Amino acid sequence: MSPISREILSLVKKPHRYIGGEAGSRKKPWEGALCRICLVFPDIYEIGTSNIGLSILYDAINERENLLADRAFTPWMDMESVMQEREEVLCSLDSQRPLSEFDILGFSLAYELNYTNILTVLQLGRIPLRCESRGENDPIVIAGGVCAYNPMPVSHFFDAIVIGDGENVAPDICHIVGELKKQGASRHHILKKLSEIAGIFIPSGDTKYKIGRQIVADLDRAAFPARPVIPYESTQMRVAVEAARGCAHGCRFCQAGYVYRPVRQRSCLHAADIAAQSLKFTGHEEFSFLSLSIGDWSPLETSLLRVHELAGKMQAAVTLPSMRVESMTDGIAAAMGRARSGSFTLAPEAATWRMRRFINKGNTDENLYASVDKIFAGGWHAVKLYFMIGLPNETDEEIDGIVEMANRCLDIGKRYHKRPDVTVSTSVFIPKAHTPFQWDAQISIEEAVRIQAVLKKKLRRPGLYYRWHDARQSFLEGVFARGGDELSCVIEIAHGKGARFDGWDECFDFNLWMDAFREAGISPHEYHKKRPFDFKFPWQELEIGPSIDFLKEERRRSELLIQTPDCTGGDCQGCGLCNFVDIKNRLVVTPKINSRTDSQSAIGANTEPKLTPPSFISDDTSHVATKCQDKEHQGTMERKSTEDAQNCDAPHRYRFQYAKEGLASFLAAVETLDMLRPAFRAAGIPLRYTEGYHPRPKIASGPALGLGLESLAEFLDAEVDSKIDIQKAIDALNERLPSGIKIVGAVEISSSTPSIDDSIESSEYLADLGSARNGLGEYIKNYVSQEIVLFKRLRGKGDVTVNLKDYVANLAVVSDNVVEIRINNTKPGLKPAEIISSIFDIDEQKMRKVTLKKTKVNWKGNKTDPDSLKEFPIS
Question: Which end of the chain has the least Cβ crowding within 10 Å, N or C?
Fold first, then answer.
């Protein structure tokens, strides 16, 4: 999609998904790059921007001076439809270049039900779907991610597939491809060269065996973004830092726990430092440390305290991924600070002692209930419990155990709160590659639905909630989890029939998939059957996971209910994934940090705290700002004088003016505010907050600007603790805002100043009608000659008819096809586009080609009154 396709952006519901320019994004010179790679996440923007793997690769590649990494996501179906209708090509976000112009496309294989989205991206990018159909000028199409541990179902769509960790090898791949393309090497030669790298599988290559995997030996030496892209919208608007990779508990159903071995932990101070830097840059109000089993990371409590210490005024809430039930401690609960208004997630996985022994979960009922007690006692009102259904050898006793466990947890919650919540979430067990259960059967759709119906019926107590996954989606996921390259044709057929976003309930069409299987002559039910131990799986000869003998032994031990201990204790279990030289378990020691002095010393004498805000607070009140910080976040403040106390308690209000131009005009009002709020935090401006469980910064915006309408005169009011240096604050804000949004001025206003909406008398616009209408003068003359010009607008509660004469204060032609219009701030409000289309008789389709820009706001009142803002002192 071209950056000038404003008309196309106006046709879709969420145009911000396609415009790029976010704070933290990289727009490197195209011509100067040795190699250009577009990293593609095959789901929508807000899902892909929360993927930490994509963020790591984007940073690792762009840190190399001569490499360029860009991003793309699967367009939602409304955009795909528009693009196909208008024969538009899919472009990247940062460079706005067609995907076909890149040297490499790198896809993330994070979820089996995203496979059809891969084909959507290739199709819209004008790239042949199958690797054998691509020519010398087509990009090298590469994949990686957890689903690459069984690459066979999608192998026909990729030239190369990276198995394992990608951050070290991705820049090397780019250098090899860039250098060889520079030398004029053929596509075949480039792929042959890539095949020589460990962990790279070339589906069309001469050999497909003994591929091995890529692995990062030391996380402290690995790339990780401290200045991540700040998305316009994301499922997780928070700072996320990977604290550890790998897990040695050996839960026998968990693919990630086996393929990401050995355990590699990031040091406490390194992780806390990254979190602190990221909070400073992004201004996010939440942060999280991520790991497959975050409770095993011994520095967790210390790291949380360290980040809080660095944060100071910029306190951020903590969220953690689901935890093993035995890993919750009083110290962790205390260190999580003010996050208690949300929910806390625990993962029992199974509700009976027998089944937990079977899957190698070593915890007890008492572990769970003790953790739940700590959570509710610590102030949380809600707990989420994750379970699996359909595990091998499962009986109805396990299902009843889920109900009993949920009720017991709710009873614990009622000791501390009037209305505690316990949410039970279940997913269907899927036998995954490289696990001891890879030979086991998957339950049928009918059996999964039966179990879900039992749980729905029995989990009806007030305060209990039940969530479940669509059994038909789990059925399809199970097919791809153990399938071979014969499934590529099924994916292709299903995509041709319209399969898109199969992981989304509103998009998933099970019948379509069953038709595709029939057309391909493949029975999907065969993939769910139990396999004998001598069965040869499609991925087996790649030798990319734990040894087969180890997995068979683990499956035997499960039948005997024998626990396999965590190998990080020093007792090797023989999975075959360590070489005990560089590839081995790397555990970190928790530093002893008892004070701020100790923590700084532990980091290093030359390292300053990362969250020191910019020095924009006016000199005469800087001491007051410090005291205000202490008052709000530490609960105490020693006042030296009554004057200090009065200054601290009295807020200061500032009215900021900002411009919104270019593609940023397609950010809706809510997304614009979502960018501005964290920018104030990141800039260190001491915003005041509302009271209650969910405090919000006291920022108020003016009337919402129409989507796609540019403006030089947007305003917001911010209430802050202390008087600020306006210019320094403006500079700090502009460093943290996305492309197209810029603060152009600010002025302090009194507490009695009316809101922005109530202060505005009228707004002025320039409208370039282009080819949408000629003879503008005649239309204006006709409009002026009428005393009443009625306009009917359909609203949710019925039609509203108004007189446009009450709205338009001035209308004139300023140049060819460009008019200037001043619109009164009259209620009910009308969009400038509605007024223009009515006066000049322009239909909806042609109006999409009209460009509108707001140039000025006129304020009410007498200009001699400083609070009236008759002449707002910003150019």
Answer: C
